[in-house]
Amino acid sequence: MKPVIPIYLLVVTLFLVECKTSRPTTGKAVHALSASIDTQNFLSCCDFGTKMPDGNPVWCEASAVLYDNGTVFFANDKDMPAGLSPVMTKPWKSLADSTARPTPLLAEAFRTARKYEDFASNKEYVFLTTAFDRVKPGSSDWDSYNTILYWKKGQEANPQVLAPERGAKTSVAFRDQLGKVLAQNRPAFPNGMPYFKVEGLAVMDTLLLFGIREEGEKFDKFDYRVRVVAVPFFVEKTGSSERIVLKNNWRIVADFDPSTVTELPKPLALSSLEYDRNRNLFWMLTSIESNGQLDAYVWTIKPEDLLNNRPPTLLRDANGQPVHFNHKAEDLTFPDAHHVLVIHDDDRTNTTVGTQTRQPNQAAYTVLRINP
């Protein structure tokens, strides 16, 4: 005669088996964080009516943002006229005050690099990268699009260029390493990825991570991506000076396809990558700009998961709906333990915030409240 298993033991056994074998899916995973939109507004890169030398208006296409000790650093991915800079600062408390002008950072390195995309910082240094999305063979005319700047916190008046050689004016020498690692296992590109675009930058203590949004044959023939390339670095000290040096072991650590979350629009691609030291968490933005549609979504992932090519978790609100923006979100930063500041680069689209319509000198931003 077979023994009879009591019903409560059967229920407990099935529960334990389910807990052991189930795996959360990328989009529906239960995460400790949820978020809601706290505030939305516009910031100004310059006075209304400011014009370029050719007479066209200056557009504020803010693409990079960083909060540090009460100050917001932000960067425009377009050139600015004389006397201004594409990199500027403003007190956090007056970010939305259009009567308070931002302070331009006028060091030559800030004014000569072109198409800024992302800030990053660790305990000691601030980093700022351009897009690396163009180079002109046989000429240095476009080398400035391939630049990574860094400076010790509080010393933004003296930015340095991250490069293999001392005294370099750009970081174009790193383009080969990035192109080669992105072309691994891609037989169509035996000499390296011809075209790619960096839109994310994150830094841990001794690790720099690049977020790749686009890659392919050329600027008008590419695929949207969410890929992350990591390279370790160290600080080289010589007498009273020091500089950051990248090591040679570049590698792809993450290659994620957002279309696996079927409820989201397509094609989404990476537009920011940041490391949150307080939570030991990476944050990622993915955005879409297609046929006039602008939208963006937020993801989080633990370092051990990102560095081992595991999928991130989609950030949702308290009702389980994806947190998103009707803007092309470009970068994010952490003004305090409970909020995330997201800056938007809507190109030249006259997007709205409430009843306000964006003007050329403005960029929209959103502040999220994080609910653990």
Outline the structure in words:
The structure is a single chain. This protein is mainly beta and 372 residues long. It has one domain: Tachylectin-2, Chain A, CATH 2.115.10. The protein is 9% helix and 43% strand. The protein is built from four helices and 24 strands. A hairpin with a 2-residue loop joins strand 16 (281-290) and strand 17 (293-301). It starts with 6 loop residues before the first helix and ends with a strand.
List the secondary-structure elements in sequence, H or E.
HEEEEEHEEEEHEEEEEEEEHEEEEEEE
The percentage of residues in β strands lies in: 35-45%
The level of helicity is under 10%
Supply the number of structural domains. Answer: 1
Structural class: mainly beta
Give the topology, please:
Layout: H1 7-21, E1 34-44, E2 62-68, E3 71-76, E4 87-91, E5 103-104, H2 108-112, E6 116-121, E7 125-130, E8 148-152, E9 160-161, H3 175-182, E10 195-203, E11 207-218, E12 221-238, E13 241-246, E14 251-255, E15 269-276, E16 281-290, E17 293-301, H4 303-306, E18 313-314, E19 324-325, E20 329-336, E21 339-344, E22 352-353, E23 356-357, E24 362-371
Antiparallel strand pairs: 1-24, 2-3, 3-4, 4-5, 6-7, 7-8, 8-9, 10-11, 11-12, 12-13, 12-14, 15-16, 16-17, 17-18, 17-19, 20-21, 21-24, 22-23
